[in-house]
Amino acid sequence: MTKIEVNTDITDERWQSSIANITEVIEKVKNATFAYVAEHENLPILQTDKPLVISLCLSDNATVHELNRDFRGMDKPTNVLTFANIDSDSFTLADDCFDEIDLGSIILAYETMTREADIENISLEAHFCHLLTHGFLHIIGYDHIKEDEAEQMEGLEVAILQTMQIANPYAEDEVE
Fold this sequence. Notes:
The protein is α/β, with parallel strands linked by helices. It has 6 helices and 4 strands, in the order βααβαββααα. It has one domain (4-163): Metalloproteases ("zincins"), catalytic domain (Collagenase (Catalytic Domain)), CATH 3.40.390.30. A 4-stranded mixed β-sheet has the order 1-2-4-3, sandwiched between helices. The protein is globular.
């Protein structure tokens, strides 16, 4: 499989105190996501011999709010933002200009993530794994703007999370 490197910058110390062994968790999610996609999807980007590089920033609401406002026109924080440098549909393996391929950046907001985990009554680590999987899928070209895209992306998320023994985040609560 293609070598994938995640360069992590933790700008808010609460991440490390809230998720034990966060570096190992990031590695686990990266491996699960890309192994699953490589096995079940036919993406040219995952067939390159060049290393793929992803920048991951574990930040806070203020930073994500500013980025969301400035780049997406949405004046509020969100749980995860992804700035992908490639579109998997237009990616070509013929580009020999660089030794590695910079896929882009993923930024997560600590406060939004913890609030959502509390509301959903799920562990912070499980929600973090879901959001990171979501970001990894965006970085390689998946999206959820159209309904069919959303269904495909959610299906991949559920399947990938299942490989890590994490419950379906989209499952409706059973009514008794």
